Amino acid sequence: MVTEKLLNELNEQINYEFESAHIYLAMAAYCADQDLEGFANFFIVQAEEERFHAMKLYNFVNEMGGRVVLRALKGPENKFDSILDVFKKALDHEKSVTKRIYNLMDIANGEREHATSSMLRWFIDEQVEEEATMTSIIKKLSRLKDNSHGIFMLDTQLGQRVFTPPTA
Ligand SMILES: [Fe+2]
Ligand SMILES: [Fe+2]
């Protein structure tokens, strides 16, 4: 059993991960509306990843004998200026997730909850990848500007992304 403080924070993170899925689905919908099906696919897969993150924490809390408590999700942003704007917001969001994971890790370490710290290490590594992915696409989009052929190529590439549940 984890401490009550940590349990509350873990529950908050479960809800935040579900909220993240919602945020990315809204981004997918914007991309689809711009006829950028590959970008839309990228965010649909991203949303699936976020649900996976939520369920990883959900299963952990259950395993530790804690009670998972779900709450209403905040409505996601649905308005975007451009595809670049979408990715900038996605990166900002990932940075906020990283901060939360670090905070969770600090609490777990402070309370000497080693099992939770060990579980959270996976999320710390995952966040490096999440931020790197968004940053790389932002750089590509910034270079492409209004080059529609380049955007089309990138759209095709992102259309290949599939969700594969991590094994570790
Ligand atoms: Fe996540
Ligand atoms: Fe994420």
How would you characterize this protein structure?
The chain is an all-alpha fold and 168 residues long. It has one domain: Ferritin. It is built from five helices and no strands. It has helices at residues 4-33, 37-63, 83-110, 114-144, 148-158. Helix 2 runs parallel beside helix 5. The chain is elongated and about 55 Å long. The two termini are 23 Å apart. Residues 17, 20, 50, 53, 97 line the site of one fe (ii) ion.
**Could you say which overall geometry the principal axes of the C-alpha atoms support?**
elongated
CA-CA gap between termini: 23 Å
What's the Cα radius of gyration? Answer: 17 Å
- The total count of strands amounts to 0
Taken in chain order, the helices and strands follow as: HHHHH
For the residues shown, what is the average pLDDT?
A: 97
Q: Note poorly predicted spans.
A: none
What fraction of the residues are assigned to beta strands by DSSP? Answer: under 5%
CATH class: Mainly Alpha
Structural class: mainly alpha
Percent helix range: over 70%
> Ligands bound here?
fe (ii) ion
Domain tally: 1
By CATH, the architecture is named Up-down Bundle
CATH superfamily: Ferritin, core subunit, four-helix bundle
Considering the chains and any ligands shown, give keywords for the structure.
168 residues, binds fe (ii) ion
